[in-house]
Amino acid sequence: MTFNDTFLRSIRKESIDHVPVWYMRQAGRYQKEYLKIKEKYSLMQICEIPDLCAEVTISPVRQHNVDAAILYSDIMIPVKPLGVNVDIVAGIGPVIDNPIRSLADVQALRPLEPDNDLPATLETIRILKKELNVPLIGFAGAPFTLASYMVEGGPSREYHKTKKMMYSQPDIWQALMDKLGDMIITYMKSQVANGCAAIQIFDSWIGALSQDDYRRYVFPTMKRIFEGLKDLGVPKIYFGANTGHLLDQWKELDIEVVGVDWRIGLDRARTIVGDKFALQGNLDPVYLLAPYDVLEAEAAKIIDQGLKQPGFVFNLGHGLFPDVPEAAVTHLTQFIHDYSKRRLSER
Amino acid sequence: MTFNDTFLRSIRKESIDHVPVWYMRQAGRYQKEYLKIKEKYSLMQICEIPDLCAEVTISPVRQHNVDAAILYSDIMIPVKPLGVNVDIVAGIGPVIDNPIRSLADVQALRPLEPDNDLPATLETIRILKKELNVPLIGFAGAPFTLASYMVEGGPSREYHKTKKMMYSQPDIWQALMDKLGDMIITYMKSQVANGCAAIQIFDSWIGALSQDDYRRYVFPTMKRIFEGLKDLGVPKIYFGANTGHLLDQWKELDIEVVGVDWRIGLDRARTIVGDKFALQGNLDPVYLLAPYDVLEAEAAKIIDQGLKQPGFVFNLGHGLFPDVPEAAVTHLTQFIHDYSKRRLSER
Predict the structure, then answer these.
(1) Which of A72, A6, A34, A9 is nearest to A336 (CA)?
(2) What torsion do the CA atoms of A159, A165, A171, A173 make, to the nearest 10 degrees?
(3) Distance of CA A220 to the CA centre of its chain
(4) For A290, which of B168, B242, B287 is closest by C-beta distance?
(5) Contact yes or no for A336/A306 (Cβ under 8 A)
(6) Distance CA B257, CA A65 (A)
(7) What's the pLDDT band for B91 if we cut at 50, 70, 90?
């Protein structure tokens, strides 16, 4: 089987014969096969068994013929070895019984040593590197998003405790950003050294911050992280939901790909960030519940916008969710490939 | 006591001696007095007792010296008489046991007759018109936000059912928008006829839609509503959380005031909507948990931006929440008045 590097070629703005596509949460609860595995194993347990974790990672590639795999893991996995008692509770999300409340709590976090702390994750990556015929994307959560769980003690809708710390105890906040920034740099280097061909930083909840708060409390850490990963030699993707208002700061970052959520059009995103970056996005995943003609029309619109300039990867504007029919994901993938092939061959 | 019409004067871009301010949810659970009342009465019960409802509405004006009152009510109150079995459940929000699932469900909704259906609300407004020395703001929920509860059956984070209806059954969706649009026009006319000096349409959850979906599925109804209220002779405010990406459509609406959430700066909002509108906003309410010097610096920044052009009302970018200290709200109000007086007198 030949290696399909369309995902990487498109990001590098090289010639492609179709638009590459992968989906956030493409391994997940909308898959019957995955649900069967989840009857026996928790998320954390799957991540501890490299063969199983590799299988879960590969399954959507086989099922839908997507152009990239993303490591099956969770953003909280590398946080646990720092000394954070985190559990992923089904139906809730990450729950932490020792939330960060003081400078001492931050100082007690120890540095990540991937080889010692996360051997199963690295072994999974090495297996996947051999078995996959598409690029493997590694990932980490971004500091704000990780910190929001660590400070709130679990998922939040409004991030009151997190923001209160930012505004009231900026020294503690910055110390936490520093620790998490270090962790992310170390972790990403290790993922790439073991076989990841690209990385994505998930800043899922960053959209809760104003432009000014982002600039003041988070942006310097993001800048340091991406500068620290400059020499990795793999493309770096930065994604967060609800980030249209932050994109004109993102364009100052050392990244290759801007992940766009569904709220703003790709045309608008391109207007804001310019033509330096590849774009990745941005179908509202709820369109996968729509009739196929409606789904296809929306996907075609996004492909047409994406293809206006080189550097485009089709994705959702947010992750797949349990109600999505598996057949719709396969259908969409096929449509994206066929439609974009037609459009590209017309050139 | 003289009538303080600074709120209306500022919206009309007339001369003012201070920046007017009111807060979304200024009557609410952060107030000890309100919590005492809530021990005996539910939200719905308070709304049925005009003297009590008027008292709850007035209390933040007395407590903080804000420049406008907003009717104490809930966006679901006028939905109940249409035939929707809605209850406001403490700690959850509106819960509906007969959600909208079909065209027949929509057709079964009957028109609102405010005099018959909501006599307590109108009596409350008449009492307030006599007792208040500041303008009274009436309000309604916007069609998308109301529909999201009616279709989901309760609060939602992702609005899957609502969007699925939009995408899959656009005729049912439009019929629902039409019914709710009619209700809102009728309700707002009645509120103004009974004494409201301004109205605000809350589209709390509209930020979940993409620009294109908003344009297709919601904007025509918003256009019809505000055109239907053109001759009311009172200023119309439109607010939704997380709406930076929608503002350049909002500028096509017959409104006088654009409510801005905290994510984008007022400068940016003005760049998008132009100088036709007054702006209202946009402090992240979590700043009320910060030390006063941090709170004041942020408020001063917003006032400086707001005063760059005539037409500004200080507000939060979202509602007050239970953890906010009452004293911080009083302090902020005083600061806004003092600081803006100084800035205005320097001109």
Answers:
(1) A6
(2) -20
(3) 20
(4) B168
(5) no
(6) 49
(7) confident
How crowded is the C-beta side of B347, counted as CA atoms within 13 Å? 14
Say which residue the tokens 């806004």 belong to.
B336
d(CA A47, CA A54): 9
**Tokens 């249209």 map to which residue?**
A244
CB of A57 closer than 8 Å to CB of A128: yes
Q: Packing angle between helix A170-194 and helix A160-168, nearest 10 degrees?
A: 110
Q: Does A3 touch chain B (CB under 8 A)?
A: no
Tokens read off for A321: 């969710």
A210 vs B323: CB contact, 8 Å cut-off?
Answer: no
Q: Which pLDDT value is given to residue A90? A: 83
Q: How confident is the model at residue A235 (pLDDT cuts 50, 70, 90)?
A: very high
pTM of the entire predicted model: 0.96
Is residue A313 within 8 Å of A340, Cβ to Cβ? Answer: no
Residue A347, pLDDT > 90, answer no
The Cα-based distances of B332 to B10, B67, B139, B292 in angstroms read: 19, 13, 24, 8
Tokens describing residue A200? 């994505």
Of A245, A287, A294, the CB nearest to B264: A245
User: By C-alpha distance, which of A190, A67, A73 is closest to A132?
Assistant: A67
Q: Are A142 and A117 in contact (CB under 8 A)?
A: no
Measure Cα distances from B137 to A195, B44, B78, B111, B131 in Å. Answer: 60, 19, 16, 23, 14
Is A293 an interface residue toward B (CB < 8 Å)?
no
The pairing of beta strand B136-141 with beta strand B93-96: unpaired
